[in-house]
Structures are given as C-alpha cells and as structure tokens.
User: Which sequence fits this backbone?
C-alpha cells in the first residue's frame, strides 16, 4: 500500500488488495513438475552413484498437472467479477470442437458457457500478441455487431507486428537464445532470423530443417549463419578453453532437438540403458539402449563445432569423420561400445553414407508424424493451459495408439487421441503453418469458453477442457501490461545488426527484445529484479517459472515500477485523464477499460466515485494502483 495515499483508500479498495494475495496460495504452475529445471548450461560429468540418485521416484515422476490446473482455475475464477456469460448454444466450429464437445457429450460432461466479449478480447490479445487491448480497441470490438467479429479480430492479431514479437520471444525462450552462450551478434542475428521467419509464415518444418542443417564456416556471428545458433547454443567445452567435446555436443543437440521437436526426453538414455531405470516412467524408453541414442547422435558425428578461444563465437563445419563411441566426456558417464551407424530412433531408418548426414536427419524428423504431434501439443498448451499430452516433452511412444494398447497398469497417454491425431494431420496438410494452427485453436468454441463454471466443478472434468483454464501472466506480459495500462513506457534500446553494423533503436514493449539480457543495466533500474521475481527465464540456467509468491504481491504494491507509473505526471494515463476534461465517472470507466478490459461493476463504480470525490488527483492515482493490484490484472482468464 502506498503510505502517502493510504488514508484515501476505502475499505473496499483494501479488500481488493486481499484478492491480489490469493495467488500466493493458489497459483500453481501447470509446469510445476519442471520447477527449477536447468535449461542446458554446462553440466558436470556424472558418476554411477549420481545417476542412481537422479532416479528416485520423487525426481523421476512427472505426472500430468490436471489437478493443479483445475484447482488454480477454480480458485481464481471464483474471485473474478461476475460479468455474465454468453448463454448461446455452443456451435461446433471446427475439428477441435467436434472432438472435444463430442467427448463431453459422449461422457455426459457439462461445460462452461461461452466467454463474453470483454473476456474474449482480453484473452485472445494476451495469447496471440502478449498484450492487453487498448480501451478504444476493446470498445470497438464489443460494440461491433458483425457475427464474424471474433474471427476478424483473430486474423488482425495474427497479421500484426505484435504477433511476431510475442512468438519470436517465445521461441527465444524455447531455444535458449542468449548472448552469454553464443555471443551478442549471434543472439541478435538468430532473433532477427526467427522474426523474419514468422513474418513470412515460414512452414514450421522448413524452419526446423534450416536450423538443424545450418553451418557457420567462418563464424556464427553473421546473418547468413543465423539459424546455426540453435545448434551453437548446445556446444560443450572440455577441461580447457581449447577443448571442444564433439560427441558431448552432438548428445546435447539430440536431447534438446528431441524435447523441442518430438516431445520426447532422451536425457536418461544418453547416459544409460532404459531397462532397470525407466519402468515406472516411460514404457517405450524402457526398451531403448544407450547405443540407440548414440546412433541418433551420430547424425551430428561429422559436424565439428569449434569455439573461438576466449570468445563466445563458433565455427560449425562438416569436416569430421564420425561419432566416436569411445570419445571422452565431460558431462556424462564414459562412453564405450562398438561403432554406430546414424539411425533415426523412431523408425530405425539409417542414413545414406553418401549424402550429408544432418539434412537427412532433419528430413526424417520433420516428416515423422510425431513431429506434427509434438508441435500441435506444445502450442495447444500455450492456449489451453494444459497439454493433450502433459508434460509436453514426456511423450511415451508405446502409449499413443489405442489400436496397440499398453499392458496394465499403463494407459493410453493422450487425453483425446483422435483430437491430437487429427489436429496434427491438419497442421501438416496446411504446410505446417503456425498461423493456421493458432487460428483454428483461437476460432474454436472450446477455446472461447468462459473460465467461470456454473454448477459444481469436478477435477475429473479437466482432461475434457470443459472450461478455459487460467494462467498467470508471463513476467514480460506483466511488465508490458503495466506499461500499456499506465501509458508510461521504458526508455529501452535494442541492438540490431545490418550489414555487420550494430544499430540501436527505441522500443516500448519487452517482447521486442531478443533476449532478457538485452535490457542493459543502465536502463534497467529495479526492472530486472521485478521480472525475475515474476519468473522470467534467464535462458542460460533456468526455465520460466509460473509460481506465485508473496514477493510478487509486495512488488505490485510497492515497487517503483508500479508506483511511479500511476502518478499524475510524465504523461501517464492518469495525467492524461485528469487533463482531458472527462467527468469522474468517465475517468473511472477509462481506468477500468484500460487496465482490466472491462467496465466497473455498480458497487465498484460507486466506491470509486467516492474515492475521487475525496481528492481527485490522489484518488485517481490510488484507483489505478488498486486496479493493477487486482487478481484479474495478473491472470489471463
């Protein structure tokens, strides 16, 4: 609470702060099983004892997060204002609806009503472009009587620069793009390449193939070698700055490529056979051997990634001979075994020794049905809050086909096999277009359900996606929403490279950065700490975290990043409104629309008017501060 204005806050606004603290106890990450997982920094060599310690049930088991997602949504939705839902008959608009509502109808599972226009407009803005709608955009949408207006809004957002910025930043997180691992020019060029690929709506399979087959014969610090920086991120250095561990690097690439693009985590079998280790975790991997992993890593056996001494710069060339199964290691148990032939683990297909190996691997990977399955599943989770297979990198290939059911007590893994298969086929049939995939998801009536549920909600309904599941905003989304709601933006500069020359440009939103580290210390103030507290990934050691904490609540109430922006100065939204000649009632409406994407409820309006009547300037500041501290500000629902 801001001490100087505390006497202006009514008991009602103090009550609003109490709801902010709800997420301290109720926010559970849908990725909570991955909490604290390392993102691929330099690892230490493992011993047999350490491997056994890593295979305890507590560390190995990664169950679906249905219960956490269900509880979080039920708790948060019960605290949200009741704005009413659209009680219209749900129309099955596409294949997603046919499968989801068909399953609900078959199993007699009730579902939520359709979201109202205010909810939907805020939700789809956050999911597609990572930002809240401006008041004028929101009202134009709500007041539009065209029955196609939701589809039109989706198309407009998909074609906006903000869509490119939001998803380029997301890919940067997925690929751990950071200057501290590959050098600032490489990080910037890679980010620019990702953004251009998204602008072109480059087919996702082509996007991935280009990264896996990329080279950097002179340096990875050029525009031409930009896609090679996906590989450069996983370079493993030996015991000295001049020792490049080629086999370790190939292993790291396969582990991360498989997690990113197949939804399968081969980390365990990169060190040991699956038998006697993975029986309770993954039925398919139980039968896999470490030599199977080496056979896939062998596709990168001729690649030689060399670090330029004392620089985060690399060359990547195809001038090696093979993957050496007896090569020393700095990050795994010592290898030892017969020579292996490059073999794709999902099919047993072997490489043609007369052709370049990496393009063959890229083609095998992107043409396999699991590539499309994994892709639609990971993007599904971004929009629905829970994967059809969850965690998204825990596919068990022995449990995805109902025609080949696994032995008891194992069950089929996807919660809706037909939906996953048909969505993957549709993705492939539309040239692996990410825009098409996101469009069909956002257009579905299932995505447009309300998070509020009339009647008794049961956790058993969760796999049916019978309501919209809430999520906390990303750290960057919180940052950008506060900046946008207050109209006070950071004085940030972003580095770009053109024709080898560094250039700086002014930016307003955090997702315009290529990496969190681009926020320079001189521009940062306390913002780095603010973002890290809200779970920002540093892309070098730790994943994004989505767990609530009391420190987050305290920062929203007290940090200068918030309190300075709600003051009636420096062109803030509060200052603009007070100078606009608008009435107190109009000011209140604009604050609610610009911050929470809705009008105030009657009780909220009455008490807001009383607050402004006490002291118009301080009352307006306090009102805006209170709205930023509301639960519905920090959640996408």
Assistant:
């Amino acid at each position: 609470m801001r001490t100087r204005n505390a006497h202006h806050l009514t008991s009602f606004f103090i009550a609003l702060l109490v709801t902010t603290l709800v997420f301290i106890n109720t926010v559970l990450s849908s990725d909570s099983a991955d909490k604290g997982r390392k993102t691929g920094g330099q690892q230490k060599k493992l011993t047999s004892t350490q491997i056994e310690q890593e295979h305890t049930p507590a560390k190995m088991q990664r169950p679906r997060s249905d219960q956490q997602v269900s509880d979080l949504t039920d708790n948060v939705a019960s605290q949200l204002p009741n704005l009413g839902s659209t009680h219209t008959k749900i129309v099955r608009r596409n294949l997603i609806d046919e499968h989801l509502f068909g399953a609900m109808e078959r199993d007699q599972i009730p579902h939520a009503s359709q979201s109202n226009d205010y909810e939907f407009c805020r939700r789809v803005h956050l999911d597609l472009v990572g930002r809240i709608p401006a008041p004028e955009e929101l009202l134009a949408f709500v007041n539009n009587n065209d029955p196609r207006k939701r589809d039109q809004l989706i198309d407009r957002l998909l074609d906006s620069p903000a869509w490119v910025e939001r998803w380029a930043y997301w890919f940067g997180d997925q690929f751990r793009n950071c200057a501290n691992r590959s050098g600032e020019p490489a990080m910037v060029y890679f980010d620019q390449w990702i953004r251009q690929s998204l602008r072109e709506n480059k087919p996702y399979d082509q996007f991935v193939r280009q990264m896996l087959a990329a080279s950097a014969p002179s340096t990875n610090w050029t525009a031409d070698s930009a896609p090679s920086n996906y590989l450069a991120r996983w370079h493993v250095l030996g015991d000295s700055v001049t020792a490049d561990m080629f086999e370790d690097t190939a292993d790291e690439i396969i582990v991360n490529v498989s997690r990113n693009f197949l939804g399968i985590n081969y980390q365990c079998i990169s060190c040991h056979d699956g038998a006697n280790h993975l029986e309770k975790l993954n039925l398919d991997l139980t039968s896999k051997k470490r030599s199977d992993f080496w056979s896939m890593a062998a596709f990168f056996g001729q690649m030689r990634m060399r670090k330029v001494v004392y620089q985060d710069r690399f060359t990547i060339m195809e001038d090696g001979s093979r993957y050496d199964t007896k090569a020393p290691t700095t990050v795994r148990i010592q290898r030892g075994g017969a020579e292996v032939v490059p073999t794709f683990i999902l099919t047993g297909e072997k490489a043609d020794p007369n052709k370049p190996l990496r393009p063959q691997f890229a083609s095998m990977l992107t043409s396999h049905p699991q590539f499309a399955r994994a892709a639609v599943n990971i993007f599904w989770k971004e929009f629905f809050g829970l994967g059809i297979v969850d965690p998204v990198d825990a596919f068990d290939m022995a449990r995805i086909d109902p025609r080949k059911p696994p032995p008891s007590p194992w069950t089929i893994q996807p919660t809706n096999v037909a939906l996953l298969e048909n969505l993957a086929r549709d993705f492939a049939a539309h040239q692996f277009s990410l825009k098409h995939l996101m469009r069909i998801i956002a257009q579905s009536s299932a995505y447009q359900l309300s998070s509020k549920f009339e009647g008794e909600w049961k956790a058993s309904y969760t796999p049916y996606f019978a309501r919209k599941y809430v999520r906390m905003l990303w750290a960057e989304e919180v940052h950008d929403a506060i900046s946008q709601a207050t109209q006070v933006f950071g004085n940030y500069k972003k580095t770009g490279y053109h024709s080898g020359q560094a250039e700086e440009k002014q930016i307003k939103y955090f997702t315009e950065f290529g990496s969190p580290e681009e926020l320079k210390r001189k521009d940062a103030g306390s913002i780095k700490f603010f973002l890290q507290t809200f779970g920002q990934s540093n892309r070098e050691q730790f994943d994004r975290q989505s767990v609530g904490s009391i420190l987050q609540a305290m920062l929203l109430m007290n940090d200068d990043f918030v309190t300075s922006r709600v003051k009636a100065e420096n062109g803030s939204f509060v200052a603009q409104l007070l100078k606009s000649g608008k009435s107190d009632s109009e000011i209140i409406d604009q604050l609610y629309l610009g911050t929470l994407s809705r009008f105030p409820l009657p009780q909220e309006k009455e008490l807001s008017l009383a607050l402004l009547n006490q002291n118009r300037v301080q009352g307006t500041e306090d009102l805006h501060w209170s709205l930023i501290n509301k639960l519905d500000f920090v959640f996408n629902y």
The longest strand covers residues 492-498. Residues 3-15+563-636 form one domain. Residues 1-41 have pLDDT under 50 and may be disordered.
